[in-house]
Structure formats: C-alpha cells, structure tokens
Amino acid sequence: MIRAATRRLNNPESTMPMQALRCGCSHHPLHCIIPPYMLETMAESADAAVRKTAVAAIEVSAQARTLRSTMQEMPAMAALMSPSGKKNRQVYDGQHLGQSSMPGVLVRGEGQPKVADVAVNEAYDHSGRTYDFFNTVFARNSLDGQGMTLVSSVHLGHNINNAFWNGRQMMYGDGDGHAFLRFTRSLDVVGHELTHGVIAHECNLRYQGQSGALNEHFADVFGILVRQWRLKQSAKKADWLIGRELLGPAATKARGLRDFGPGKAYEDDPAIGTDPQPKHMQSLYTGPGDFGGVHINSGIPNHAFYLFARRLGGPAWQLPGAIWYEAMRKLSANSDFGEMVSTTLMIASDQHGAGSTVHKALQDAWQAVGL
What we know:
Structural class: alpha/beta
CATH class of the largest domain: Mainly Alpha
Distance between the termini: 30 Å
CATH superfamily of the largest domain: Neutral Protease Domain 2
CATH architecture of the largest domain: Orthogonal Bundle
Number of helices: 13
Order of helices and strands: HEHHHHEEHEEEHHEEHHHHH
Strand content: 5-15%
Helix content: 40-55%
C-alpha cells in the first residue's frame, strides 16, 4: 500500500487535509530526522492518535524555520564555546513547552552524575559518544572543530514525533508512543543530527536538490558510523539501519527509518507508509517535494557507501569514513552527486593510489548506483 502522502511527492497540486500545516519549512529548511513526507503520511493515518501527533510535529517543524535559516547563514555565530575548550555537554528539560521557551531548565552538565530522567541521560551519553567519535577518529574538537558546547533539550512539546538540529542546539520530542518512541533512544539518530552541525561548519551544503541530498547523506553516514564505532562492528556485521530504536508498536512493518542496504526500511506500514528512497540514479526523484528529494535521493549515495564499505570489509569508519570525511571538507555549498563522485575518487587515488583495491572498489560502488 503506497500511501497518499508518498504519491503526493510527485504531484505538487495535491493537498493534505490541513494544508496550512504542511511540513518541511518550505522557505527555510530544518534538519529533522523524520522527513516531511513521512509526517504527511502519518497525518492521514486511520489512527486518530497518530494523526494528532503528526500534525503537532508538522507545526513544530514550521515554527523553527526562521532560526534555522539564520543559523545556516552564520554557523560560527551559533556556536557556544566550551569553557575548557574540550568536550562540554549541557542537557536541558524543555518541560513540554514550545521552542520559544528553549533551551529550558538545565538539568545535567559536563561531568555531572546521572539523573532520574532517562531522556536526559540518553541525550547526554549519545552526544558525548558522537563527540568522542569525531575526536578519536578524525581529531575533531566538537562540531565546529574548536570545542563548541553540545546543547540538548529534551521533552520538547507534547509527544512530538521528531528530533532536529536547529543550527544552535539539539531538540528532542518524546514520541507519541504509537508510531515512535522517545527520540533520544537512538545513537545513530543523535549522531545524524549533530553531524548536520559539522556539515554547517565545513561545506554547509545547501538544503535543496542534490546538494541537500548530500547533506542528508553525510548525516546518515556519520550517524551510522558513530553507532558502528561504539559497538565495534565491522561493515559486514552491521545492519545499516537508521533509527530502528525509535519505532513504536504502531509501526508494525518497519525495520528502521532508512536502510543503506538494497531493501526498503519500511513498506506498506500502517503508520508510516512505504520507504520512497531509491538505490540507483534511474529512480532519482525529480519532483518538488522534500526540498527536491533531500531525504529521498540521499538513498543513492547511502547505498554506494554501503557497497564500498562492505567490499573493503573491516570497520567502515576507517578507510571509507576517512575518505568521506575529507570529501565533506572539500565540497562546497552547491556540490552535486557528480562532484561527490569525482572528489571521493580523487581522495582515494591520492591516498591509496590510482587503480588500487580501494580506488577500484569505490569506482565500482559509484557505478553500481548509476554514478
């Protein structure tokens, strides 16, 4: 069952029942883990509880667009520096209020013990693990490379189905308990959203079309690498799913939010519909929805990275991750898939030799997805 909101991606004239609440912040995109087409599908669910929380999540996304736009233009101004210049986490309780009341009440700072609130502890631990990953693997000191404080707010609004990076801090909804559980549960989701902060301080990829799909792709890659690094998983042993820990009891046919592998993360699911991500350029989405398919077409380079990493074997954060990290630093705001291919191949050739096993594996991976 391909749900109406998925079909609507290819029909800009279509509307949803509450058109004024269309998701996605059309003029000023927001980096959310739950894409607009999924929320629109949920807003038409037969389950009244799922519909209600989907509309609330759409409203929250819309409220954040102006701040996100400003912060994207001036990412350095958004950085709150760590007093020590090292890892510094601050986790706030949003107390179920709106974004205008964020960050909320500070409940746990760097080095302080666990508190009774599991969402606070998850946000603290997962942001710390993301910091440790970038610092250990790439010698990067926080998102900006200069010790930016990692600020998180939990309990945003009431049962909000999303988590996002707004250019200054992380915000987490608690989920509705039906389609999704609390959004602090997933390390790869936290890593994904914080990677948007890294991207903003490097190539700052424009959130539209192929450059926007690369933005989402890099966030997916480093989000999943944080988890694999933490679990010490090899590329062949990892499941390559994003967000599996978020799925609630209503998502009965979903394995995750996104799948780097050849299959769909969810199909004909009664709560969230069918995964629209392509794995090959022949199926490239060219419509206006999702800012030109930023969450959709990211599936193509995602699958290429998966093929490359599995071909090499071993830890994906090492050789493949190093090439991708260097590429992220070399690209520019308007880079497209073609530039991504040429840049990664150049890095592989420079670091490992033209025609080397690594270089050939990367060529084959890009060719396998039509690039």
